[in-house]
Amino acid sequence: MADALTRTSLPDQVFHRLVSDVLAGRFAPGERLPTQRALAAELGVNMASVREGVKRLEQLGLVEVRHGDAMRVLDWRLHGGPDVLVHLIARDGSLDVEMVRAVMEARRLLLAESGRLAASRRTEAQAALLASLAEQLAGASDDVAAQHLDFAWFAVLIEAAGNVVFLLVMNSIRALYLENLELFRPIVAPELAVHYADAARAVRDGDGDAAAAEIAALAAAQEARLLEALA
C-alpha cells in the first residue's frame, strides 16, 4: 500500500486496496493491520473512507475488528463466503486461472443438479421461458447479447430448481459476470446453442437425467473454452 489514492469513490478504493492486499497474502492470517488512522495517513484519505472500507472488509469475513481500531486478518478459506469469490477470481482487470478452474468446476456441478431439480419442480411459465431464451440464444446478434441471454437462461433454471442456496450463490456472482463480460466472452459460441434448447426440452418433459447431462455438457464446454483462452 505505497501510493496515495486519487479522490474519487474513496471508500470503494480503500476497500478494493485492502481486499487486494489481504487476498494477495501481503498480510498473513492473524497478522495485525495498521490502525485506521495510520491507513488514512498512508493512503491519503479521510477516516470516514477508511472506516467504510474496513466495515465492508469485515462483512466479507476478511478481518476482525477489535476495540474499535485493532484489526486482524482472518483466513478467508475459513471465514469467507461466496461474495469473496468476486474478488478472488477477477483482480487487476484479469482472471486468476486457478480460481477460474475451481469456480467453473463448482458451477458445472451446481448447474447440472439445478437442471435435475428443475425438471421436477419447474412451473409451466418457467419451462416456456427457458425454451424462449434458448431460441433467442440461437439467434443472438452478437457475443454480448449471447452472454446476457446465457446468464438469464441459467438464472431461470436455478429459480426453477427451487433451491434458495443455489439462488444466493447465483446472486453472488451476478456482478462479477456482468461487470466483466469481456473476460468471460469465450463461454458463448454458436455451436453451444443446441445444448440450451435440448436442456430446456428435457426440463419441460420432466427428464431430470437428460437435463443434467445436457447442462453438464454445456458447462464443461464453456469451462474448456474459457480455460483455453486463459492458457
Description:
With 231 residues, the chain is mainly alpha-helical. The chain folds into 2 domains: 10-79, Arc Repressor Mutant, subunit A, CATH 1.10.10.10; 83-230, Four Helix Bundle (Hemerythrin (Met), subunit A). Helix content is 68%, strand content 5%. The protein is built from 11 helices and 4 strands, in the order αααββααββαααααα. It has helices at residues 10-23, 36-43, 47-59, 76-79, 83-89, 97-121, 124-138, 143-161, 164-179, 193-205, 208-230; strands at 63-66, 70-73, 90-91, 94-95. It has a two-stranded antiparallel sheet with strand order 1-2. The protein has a two-stranded antiparallel ribbon with strand order 3-4. A hairpin with a 3-residue loop joins strand 1 and strand 2 (70-73). The longest helix is centred in the middle third of the chain and has 25 residues, at 97-121. It is elongated, with a radius of gyration of 21 Å. The protein starts with 9 loop residues before the first helix and ends with a helix.
